[in-house]
Amino acid sequence: MSPDGVSGDPTLDVSVFDGVLRDRTDDPAAAVEAFTHSGGTAAMWCASAVLVVALALVRRRGDAVLVGGAMFTGLVLMSALKRLWRRERPPIPERLVDVDSYSFPSGHAMMTAIFAVTVGFVVVTSVGPRVLEATLAALLVVFTLGIGLSRVYLAAHWATDVAAGWLFGVVWGAVWIVARRSAWRVAWPRRHRPR
Questions:
Q1: Which of 8, 75, 115, 185 has the fewest CB neighbours in a 10 Å radius?
Q2: Residue 121 forms part of a structural domain
């Protein structure tokens, strides 16, 4: 089975797809399917909304705008990219999740990457124990990697869909961080800047 569309490396995608099907078993698949939902659009929006409200309540409005703005515009960008490429998903019955949108890029991978990059930035620029900051940032990275791999394991996406999702997500999060830091420099003279 070859992935449709112009994106990705068909040889790589088919090799990964065949390997997943060969090694996949029923018990882990059920657990992986439960896990993959934690990186879905609804879950990421809930997590983002809670964080945005929490940041606003502690008067970190710039960070609230960073997370909320990156996630909202990231969703718009991801939807536009899917419509642009119109790549079909892996076939049924191999696909273990019911989805009807296009495949490229992976929305789960892209949105969790945006979340990980922006929230990671907020965490590492906070005043707190360095070990805790590093641990939370590492957990965010592990989470988005796990979500992306779960999408391949469930045959919800081709491998290159997930890789592209991570790439677009990291870049989009970084664009928002650069914009946030630029606004921060304008708002705070150097000698008065918070950490």
A1: 185
A2: yes
Contact in structure between 155 and 95 (CB atoms under 8 Å) = yes
DSSP assigned state of 191: G
Cβ(78)–Cβ(107) below 8 Å: yes
> What does residue 102 show for φ and ψ, rounded to 5 degrees?
-70, 165
Residue 15 lies in a domain: no
Q: How many structural domains does the chain have?
A: 1
Range of the domain at 30: 26-90+100-184
Q: How many CB atoms lie within 10 A of CB 49?
A: 13
Radius of gyration (C-alpha) of the chain in whole angstroms? 18
Tens digits of per-residue pLDDT, 78-113? 999 999 999 888 877 777 677 888 889 999 999 999
